[in-house]
């Protein structure tokens, strides 16, 4: 009777609370059947990872891409396992806290392994660990395949990713293709695209309607030929990332304020686009002030810069100090004479001293005094870069065939800078045939057309100095009133042709 009462009481209790007994079985906590040490057996069967990059000739599509769908708890467990794996091979996962990671460690293992195949080391991955959030199939392989298609060598892909790992996040169609089309539209040769990108990978991250378009448009507006923009990009692609208002325009305006015409500045930039990379405040202005401090006249700056634009970016104070001391000690040229030399030939700033001494020693060996040689160099600094062998031939022709006094070489040392076979001999023979007696400068320091005009003229044109350029004004060529119409050019073009050969 007692047992029957107990069974009835138990039945009543179950009927009152059916959820507690019949429909809520006890849940056992989730236990991963594989411990972390056996969760990624594939990893243990491979060689240990190190900071040395693995060299693989080919890469293949991964067998798995992301993993399986997991609940919140499983995701947390997988994240812990993946972070432990990354730490075990030397990768710091701190930056991956906010990043969605794959569900299994095998996927992460394949990402690391793939990056090592293209040449990255663990240290490289640590520099930008966010690349581990890129899917091999969906992100990395499409990007690398496209880069290889447009000209990057497969052996250079690892280096490219090291320089600009953010490219792995890019969409090929939406972000990369438009940039390449833009570069081709600027006349960058197809075979140069890979070279340009290796030089400046960040180009792939620029917006077309932003800095790149405005910098090109501004350069064209100051006179740069649109057809020359492509070669400029190939030579110095960094200007595409420069802001016009804060970098390019202030530099251009400052050089124009020194008296350099925009047209000539445009020609300089077409051939030496790297000038745009000179820092205005830290390099260009201090160098201009340095030239003033060494005695150069401000009105000569346009000619100096046009002849040797690199002078704006050199460590100028140290070079000028060294050369000035050398000219004073060895050549007996005072600081004022040295300033005149730099005005006429600024390339001397970077000239090695042993090169300078060779023609000097030749002249001294031909009977010229030290003072005479110094005056000749101040008059014609190009002497110091003349080849001694050619100077010998010209000197012997002057002494033996022409039979002229040595004083004429003191008055016109430029004689050594002209070609003996193509200018001196032919013109001298023409003078001899007409029995014309004139100075060296009269028959050498002119164009072929001017020489013919002088040769058949009824009078000998008085000698005049070479072209001069005044800041803020136009180029004035002495005697240009008798220049034939075929020889006339714009003033800027004449200055450019006569002062600089780019």
Automatic annotation (TrEMBL):
Principal localisation: plastid
A GO BP entry: developmental process
Bias kind Acidic residues: ranges: 483-493
Entry's transmembrane regions: none
GO cellular component term of the entry, any: chloroplast
Keywords, comma-separated and alphabetical: Chloroplast, Plastid, Transcription, Transcription regulation, Transcription termination, Transit peptide
Region Disordered, annotated ranges: 482-502
Subcellular location: Plastid, Chloroplast
Matching InterPro entries: MTERF, MTERF_sf
GO MF: nucleic acid binding
Pfam family, one: mTERF
Keyword Chloroplast: yes
Family classification: Belongs to the mTERF family.
PANTHER family, per database record: CGI-12 PROTEIN-RELATED (PTHR13068), EXPRESSED PROTEIN (PTHR13068:SF24)
UniProt-recorded name of the protein: Transcription termination factor MTERF4, chloroplastic
């Amino acid at each position: 009777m007692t047992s029957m009462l107990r069974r009835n009481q138990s039945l009543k209790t179950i009927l009152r609370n059916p959820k507690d007994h019949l429909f809520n079985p006890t849940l056992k906590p989730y236990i991963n059947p594989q411990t972390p040490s056996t969760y990624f057996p594939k990893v243990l069967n491979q060689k240990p990872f190190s900071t040395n990059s693995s060299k693989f000739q080919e890469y293949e599509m991964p067998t798995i891409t992301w993993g399986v769908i997991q609940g919140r708890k499983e995701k947390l467990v997988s994240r812990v396992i993946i972070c432990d794996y990354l730490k075990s091979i030397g990768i710091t996962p701190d930056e991956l806290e906010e990043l969605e990671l794959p569900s299994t460690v095998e996927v992460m293992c394949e990402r690391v392994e793939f990056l090592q195949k293209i040449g990255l080391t663990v240290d490289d991955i640590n520099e930008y660990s966010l690349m581990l959030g890129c899917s091999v199939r969906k992100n990395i392989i499409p990007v690398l395949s496209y880069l290889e298609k447009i000209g990057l060598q497969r052996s250079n892909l690892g280096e490219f990713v090291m320089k600009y790992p953010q490219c792995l996040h890019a969409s090929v169609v939406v972000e990369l293709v438009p940039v390449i089309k833009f570069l081709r539209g600027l006349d960058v040769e197809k075979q140069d695209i890979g070279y340009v990108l290796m030089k400046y990978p960040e180009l792939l991250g620029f917006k077309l309607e932003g800095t790149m378009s405005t910098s090109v448009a501004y350069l064209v507006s100051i006179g740069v030929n649109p057809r020359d923009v492509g070669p400029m990009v190939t030579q110095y692609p960094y200007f595409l990332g420069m802001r016009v208002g804060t970098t390019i325009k202030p530099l251009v305006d400052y050089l124009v304020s020194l008296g350099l015409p925009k047209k000539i500045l445009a020609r300089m930039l077409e051939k030496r686009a790297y000038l745009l990379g000179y820092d205005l405040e830290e390099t260009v202005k201090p160098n201009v002030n340095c030239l003033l401090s060494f005695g150069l006249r401000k009105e000569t700056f346009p000619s100096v810069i046009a002849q040797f634009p690199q002078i704006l970016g050199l460590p100028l104070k140290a070079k000028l100090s060294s050369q000035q001391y050398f000219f004073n000690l060895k050549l007996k040229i005072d600081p004022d004479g040295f300033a005149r030399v730099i005005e006429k030939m600024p390339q001397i700033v970077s000239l090695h001293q042993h090169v300078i001494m060779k023609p000097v020693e030749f002249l001294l060996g031909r009977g010229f005094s030290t003072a005479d040689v110094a005056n000749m160099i101040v008059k014609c600094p190009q002497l110091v870069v003349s080849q001694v062998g050619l100077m010998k031939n010209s000197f012997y022709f002057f002494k033996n065939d022409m039979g002229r006094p040595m004083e004429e070489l003191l008055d016109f040392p430029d004689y050594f800078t002209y070609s003996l076979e193509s200018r001196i001999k032919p013109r001298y023979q023409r003078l001899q045939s007409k029995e014309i007696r004139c100075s060296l400068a009269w028959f050498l320091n002119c164009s072929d057309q001017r020489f013919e005009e002088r040769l058949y003229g009824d009078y000998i044109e008085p000698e005049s100095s070479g072209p001069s350029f005044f800041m803020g004004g136009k180029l004035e060529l002495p005697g240009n009133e008798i220049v034939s119409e075929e020889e006339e050019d714009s003033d800027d073009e004449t200055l450019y042709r006569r002062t600089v050969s780019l």
